[in-house]
Amino acid sequence: MAKIAVRNLFKIFGDDPKSILPMLHDGIDKADIQQKTGHVIGLNNINIDIEAGLITVIMGLSGSGKSTLIRHLNRLIEPTAGEIMLDGDNIMAYDAQQLRALRQTKMSMVFQKFALLPHRTVLENALLAPQVRGEAVSNAEDEARRWIKRVGLEGNESAYPHQLSGGMQQRVGLARALTSNAEIMLMDEAFSALDPLIRTSMQDLLLELQQDLHKTIVFITHDLDEALKLADHLVILKDGFIVQQGEPQHILLNPSDPYIEEFVSDINRARVLRVRSVMTSGKPPANTDGAVDAGTSLEALIAHAEGDVDRIYTVTDAGKTVGSISMKAAFKALVRYDLASGSEPTVARSSAK
Q1: How far is the CA of 82 from the CAs of 45, 148, 160, 167, in angstroms?
Q2: Which residue stretches of the chain are H helix?
Q3: How far apart are CA 246 and CA 237, in angstroms?
Q4: Are the beta carbons of 227 and 244 closer than 8 angstroms?
Q5: pLDDT tens for residues 19-64?
Q6: pLDDT tens-digit readout, 89-135
Q7: Distance between the two ends of the chain, CA-based, in angstroms?
Q8: Is the alpha carbon torsion for 79, 83, 86, 91 positive or negative?
Q9: Is 48 buried (19+), middle (13-18) or exposed (0-12) by CB count in 10 A?
Q10: What average pLDDT score do residues 190-200 get?
């Protein structure tokens, strides 16, 4: 069972949103609805399973509905129709007290603009969640200091937000979310306000923490590179509906729609694709040219093979043999197919970026 199951979720903004629902089922799109009725489609029949202990990334361009969606998960926004199940329990039926408990104990949120309290120190900001729950702050202080150290801010406990860089402020936001001990973390474009180098370091920090914590994380972004780096499960939105969802590498190799094909066309496929995504499972042939790890990028594999198209390698994962990869298969994966014009192959722009 999914940790969070979103079922048939609709959000329509306007004077009479429920009257618009039959039109959506009839296939009228967002622009037509707005022009004819003055209503705006926020979400259009969203269905997602968010698995425990994994990072689900929801991405799309501005206006796609991604931030609207994440705010439904803790009911900061009420849906027009649909269900959100948490461990099999429909949170749409929660009363005010149950909602407070949900937000205070089960879900934490990391915001794009940091949302730190300016009159509180780093330590005091990190202690916000237990304080709001009415717990003795002294009992939670050791926990807060541990997370401040873990996110790389040890020694800054007494500093105020205005004394910190943007990256440091976001680390405080992350420490605050971790101190809450919530099993679910909602991250709404948490790194998009950061400079590229700092953003990369924050992504690396999140992945490092996740290796140990196995939180259920819902991460919102408009950046495909970030999505491909972080996601265990990727959901791509457009105009309020899901265009495609699944394992990121599968989406990259098998775009189901011209919109997705265009989205992924400029991605450095050699750098993003991993051996596990294009290998042949099962027993490898005899006399391979060595072994490579399943998590190796195709870029690194090509360099290791010195561009020799005839080589074949055994693929291992955690020391166990899981299959084989031929260099011909690796190079073939760098060729994409243009859905809009049929099945004619074109060379992927794998050196882009």
Answers
A1: 8, 39, 42, 37
A2: 21-25, 30-37, 66-73, 96-101, 122-126, 128-132, 137-150, 166-179, 196-213, 224-230, 248-253, 258-264, 269-272, 275-278, 298-304, 327-332
A3: 12
A4: no
A5: 999 888 756 778 888 988 999 999 999 999 999 999 999 999 888 9
A6: 999 999 999 999 999 899 998 887 778 899 999 999 999 888 888 88
A7: 39
A8: positive
A9: buried
A10: 85
Best CA proximity match to 166, nearest among 139, 199, 138: 199
Cβ neighbours, 10 Å, residue 15: 8
Q: At residue 351, does pLDDT exceed 60? A: no
Comparing C-alpha atoms, which of 111, 123, 121, 131 is closest to residue 148?
Answer: 123
33, two tokens = 């609805």
CA of residue 301 relative to chain centroid, distance: 26
Residues 6+ apart with CB under 8 A from 119: 160
In three-state secondary structure terms, 22 is: helix
Q: Decide: 158 and 122 in contact? Cβ < 8 Å.
A: yes
